[in-house]
Amino acid sequence: MEQPRGMGIRSSLGENPRNGSNLSNESTCGIQDDFLTETLPAVYSIIAIVGFISNFLALWVFSFGSLKTNSITVYMKHLAIADLFLALCLPFRVAYQKHSGPPALCKMIGVIFYVTMYVSIFLLSLISLDRYFKIIKPLQQFRIHTVPFSTAISGVVWLICIATMLCFLLNSSEAGPCGHKCFHFKYRSNTGGVLNMTAVTIFFLLLLFFLYSYGKISLRLHAVSLKKTQQHSKKMSTRAVIKTFVVLVVFIICFVPYHMVRIPYILAQVRIISEQNIQPLHLANELVLCISTLNCCFDPVIFFFLSSSFKKSLLDTTLGKLKWASQNNQRALYVR
């Protein structure tokens, strides 16, 4: 006789999800990845390759290129470092999507994964704040625009995110039938739920800042465009809009879906939401988490549009290498 919908999860997790003995005695994980078992490894593999190559090239340009160092380039360099670490984490998510992995390694990869995510969120916020002051108050000089301050605040962002994620690591998830899986739904204590919800709250506060600041920037750019009648000036205004709003677009696409799903997901982890909703929440969480990793592919696009010196240095580096390779090939043919 066919079980009613949701009973598979109920029977695997135990009738009473608060009963730790029932959970630990179950050997079968009732929360399945379904179609994600094959889809996520393929998508993560593509993102890892594109993200690693593009951010490695970006770091090469930041370190050895001819671009001038300013506050924006400092933030972008740290953003490329975070994205490179994220790209290096993704092969482990590919490897352990179907199979169990060493618990210590799984926790370490999880910590690095979320550290890089929130470092990226804070750095994008700092880039937006930098742009906001430059556009709204162009005649004033703020500390955020200086290289020493931007370097120091970037280091503070790394320290805060690492320290916070270590708290998550120490507050381990509760044992359960899916505890043997690396990246999977797990019940959490109330303390873990509060920590997770605090991170979500901080994100939405930053989102409100984004919406406010970009609303003000949009009004300012619109007012400037009304005063410009020449075609060249209009093109310059269009470039300014693209340079400004590319950060907002990437921020919303990559991180908003994840944090929206995160709210009911955390409530399910602390058993406030019924266990019948765990299966769809797990699938939704895995999908939006995958979308969030697109950030490591989109950030180099931000570098290209946001910094004209980065664009010039990248093109000079790339064209220079192509020219050098072409000359070497010609010499080899001549020797033959």
Automatic annotation (TrEMBL):
Keyword Nucleus tagged: no
GO molecular function annotations of the record: G protein-coupled receptor activity; oxysterol binding
Main subcellular localisation: membrane
Topology in membrane: Multi-pass membrane protein
Subcellular compartments: Cell membrane
Stretches that traverse the bilayer: 42-62, 74-96, 108-129, 149-171, 191-212, 240-261, 281-306
Residue span(s) of domain G-protein coupled receptors family 1 profile: 54-303
Alphabetic keyword roster: Cell membrane, Disulfide bond, G-protein coupled receptor, Glycoprotein, Membrane, Receptor, Transducer, Transmembrane, Transmembrane helix
InterPro entries: GP183-like (IPR047160), GPCR_Rhodpsn (IPR000276), GPCR_Rhodpsn_7TM (IPR017452)
GO CC list: plasma membrane
Stretch list, region Disordered: 1-26
Pfam families in the record: 7tm_1 (PF00001)
Family membership noted in the UniProt record: Belongs to the G-protein coupled receptor 1 family.
Function: G-protein-coupled receptor of lysophosphatidylserine (LysoPS) that plays different roles in immune response. Acts a damage-sensing receptor that triggers tissue repair upon recognition of dying neutrophils. Mechanistically, apoptotic neutrophils release lysophosphatydilserine that are recognized by type 3 innate lymphoid cells (ILC3s) via GPR34, which activates downstream PI3K-AKT and RAS-ERK signaling pathways leading to STAT3 activation and IL-22 production. Plays an important role in microglial function, controlling morphology and phagocytosis.
Name this protein carries in UniProt: Probable G-protein coupled receptor 34
Taxonomic source organism: Python bivittatus
Gene name, Swiss-Prot/TrEMBL: LOC103055465
